[in-house]
Amino acid sequence: ETVITTKDVRLYYGEHEALHGINLDFQKSQITALIGPSGCGKSTYLRCLNRMNDLIHDVTITGSFKIDGHDIYRPQQDVVSLRKKVGMVFQQPNPFPFSVYDNVAYGLRVQGIKDKKIISQKVEESLKQAAVWDEVKDDLTKNALSFSGGQQQRICIARLLAVKPDVILLDEPTSALDPISSAKIEEMLLQIKDQYTIIIVTHSMQQASRISDKTAFMLNGDLVEYGDTK
Ligand code: ADP
Ligand code: ADP
């Protein structure tokens, strides 16, 4: 099932054309890896999918972006609700500077959920899905920033999963982590992928081949190869 369709995507930083007409689709229950050398436009393309780029000074984007048939750049698109549907994880874990529990509960409270029992169930469920529950369950009131980088990254993923996104964008989520923490995140992504459309930017061919269904190779702002991951 195709969830995201992008056509002839061009992006200019000022006069500089950073993406030269990318056509790429993404399917539910699949992980697509975006790979290519540093500076080829992977992050730039990824950020178009949750509308992080068009709010930056002097950026021009053309082309079409549809998620579940909705043009996400149409004038009446509510960017806040788009961000709930399309969650993003960055290279550096960025938990909020408060407890693990409040990090994961945050999005639920923003949605107006008040029932403490429902919140606590969803917090537990999300931390379990993100494969970090066993490591934090006795310390839910501890500051999220007091945990290891790998744990912080999985707490961030739990925070994102709690609001039930359709799409998960990951921009080099394991580049700042040790191999064991990276492996935990890879294994977790394979566990959850059935329910989501997942796109991961990585510079590691090995990582792409371990976890992705599809691989898209970019070079100098172009998509140069796309297909089933071998
Ligand atoms: P990658 O993720 O593949 O390393 P990026 O998307 O970060 O590549 O960058 C693609 C190109 O766009 C590079 O030439 C980079 O210097 C340029 N670029 C990225 N972000 C900006 C920005 N905010 N302003 C101007 N140029 C940028
Ligand atoms: P509508 O589709 O009538 O705008 P919805 O309740 O379906 O209303 O969606 C609320 C908001 O979320 C709208 O701005 C919509 O474009 C956006 N939206 C809905 N589904 C998705 C999706 N899968 N991906 C991105 N944005 C979406």
UniProtKB/TrEMBL annotation:
Pfam families: ABC_tran. GO terms for biological process: phosphate ion transmembrane transport. InterPro entries: AAA+_ATPase (IPR003593), ABC_transporter-like_ATP-bd (IPR003439), ABC_transporter-like_CS (IPR017871), P-loop_NTPase (IPR027417), PstB-like (IPR005670). GO terms for cellular component: membrane. NCBIfam families: 3a0107s01c2 (TIGR00972). Keywords: ATP-binding, Nucleotide-binding, Phosphate transport, Transport. This is Phosphate ABC transporter, ATP-binding protein. The lineage of its organism: Bacteria, Bacillati, Bacillota, Bacilli, Lactobacillales. It comes from the Bacteria. GO terms for molecular function: ATP binding; ATP hydrolysis activity; phosphate transmembrane transporter activity. Residues 4-230 form the ABC transporter domain. It comes from Fructilactobacillus lindneri DSM 20690 = JCM 11027.
